[in-house]
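haha ok so turns out i had the wrong file open the whole time. this is the CORRECT one, sorry everyone. sequence first:
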Amino acid sequence: MNPHPPNDIRTLGTHHHWLFTHDPRYARHWGGTEEEIRQAAKNRESLPEHQRKSPHHVHAERDAKILAELGVKIVCQGPGTELKRLIDSLGIEAKLGCGCEALARQMDQWGPEGCAQRRDEILAKLRENASKLGWLEKIKAAANAVLTGLAFQLDMSDPAASLLDEAICRAQAASAA
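then structure:
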């Protein structure tokens, strides 16, 4: 639970309110009651299919379509490779003994569906590694995220989960192209 949910979380008409009432992940993250979380899941299911997709799915599908139209073949071995590319784009370098390469290879073997099933396990490892970053590395990564535009595709309240979701979506889009 996030100890500091946005002040406007239950104010009608705000972006945060919409997320809180239509996405159980946000409702849970921002301290919603079990009833609010169930209602958010129910509200999400009532949305049209295109609105149920996260921004990550929309961007990945759009990007894959544009590249396919240009005749560019996306070379991807899976979500682990995609996650490594995303982390590299932030300027974050693997630390000795972090297990990043092994995790990336394992994620590629699991594929997008397997990674989605093992999301909590992967996130635990990502968060463990992120906790070892110094504040200067975190500032550098945040600046690179803004410069590359990645920051505008991620949920900054949980960047590890957003990076994982983006990697899975890119791997799905690449395999579909």
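The radius of gyration is 17 Å.
again sry for the mixup
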